[in-house]
Amino acid sequence: MRGAVIHAPGDVRFETLDDPKVLHPTDAVIRTAVTCVCGSDLWPYRGAEPIGDPHPMGHEYVGFVEEVGSAVTGLRPGQFVVGSFATSDNTCPNCLNGFQSNCLHREFMSTCQAEYVRVPNAAGTLVALDEVPDESLWPGLLANSDVMGTGWWAADAARVRPGSTAVVVGDGAVGLCAVIAAKELGAERIIAMSRHESRQELARAFGATDVVAERGEDGVARIKELTGGIGADSVLECVGTAQSTAQALHSARPGGSVGFVGVPHGVTVDGQELFFSHVGLRGGPAPVRRYLPDLIERVLSGRIDPGRVFDLTLPLDRVAEGYRAMDERRAIKALLTP
Ligand SMILES: [Zn+2]
């Protein structure tokens, strides 16, 4: 089969790879329906994370079950499945507590920009649909496997409640999905922080009531102006830089909460400042598996359409173009079709 391999910063190639096989009885192999490039794939692509030896890429996927290991229950070949970027057995204590992305048997997916993918912990990770959904729904279901699930976690971790005010820091795919989540969880006012017109538009379509284009402390000042001088109930940090994290922490009101889901790079938090701010802080890799059944239902029923974050569609063999377009911010998120 063929798939994407990163060799060096800026150098992603589409190459012939070994066909994935069932290696453990708990594995499944799926045939990719659609996959995509993630904002977090840009960290190594931009040289902000070490690459080491050339290796496959991708952690978002929906597909058709091709083969299952002898210990996999509840799945059969031909089923359309949605998974998560973190695999989980869904039976260990951390899974039962709803933190499947910290499963004691967790393995992160890392080879999904390919025609076939091996999924460890298949029975606990994959959610099978009753029937193969219409192709128009595949992008939305694919978004659930990471960006929509992560946006939901941002809103959940930031304790978005009916009637509350939520600020979303970051206008990438996760930030835009976080707007959807804040709306679904009942936020009355949703302030999207974005400087890009097309992304502002999509944020408004997803439910943002206000847009703030200023950044850093200027952005914080605007948020305070819009929130009676004190800051927002909930702030959803969806970037992961030092600046965006400071912006998020300073935008929350005393007693408010920040959910941080952008993978931190160069972020430090000042203990004294956090102490005196009375701001609650929770984040980490999203427990997407906890949300999947609900998110799948919302997509299938047409209640939400996170697939709109894909503004570029390419055949999988042109995956390198997807990285380039996202790196240059010409595209929010690239959908790849095998
Ligand atoms: Zn587990």
Automatic annotation (TrEMBL):
Signal peptide: none annotated. CDD domains: FDH_like_ADH3. It comes from the Bacteria. Keywords: Metal-binding, Oxidoreductase, Zinc. Its cofactor is Zn(2+). InterPro entries: ADH-like_C, ADH-like_N, ADH_Zn_CS, ER, GroES-like_sf, NAD(P)-bd_dom_sf. The keyword Isomerase does not apply. Residues 7-336 form the Enoyl reductase (ER) domain. It holds the Pfam family ADH_zinc_N. Belongs to the zinc-containing alcohol dehydrogenase family. This is Zinc-dependent alcohol dehydrogenase family protein. It comes from Kitasatospora saccharophila.
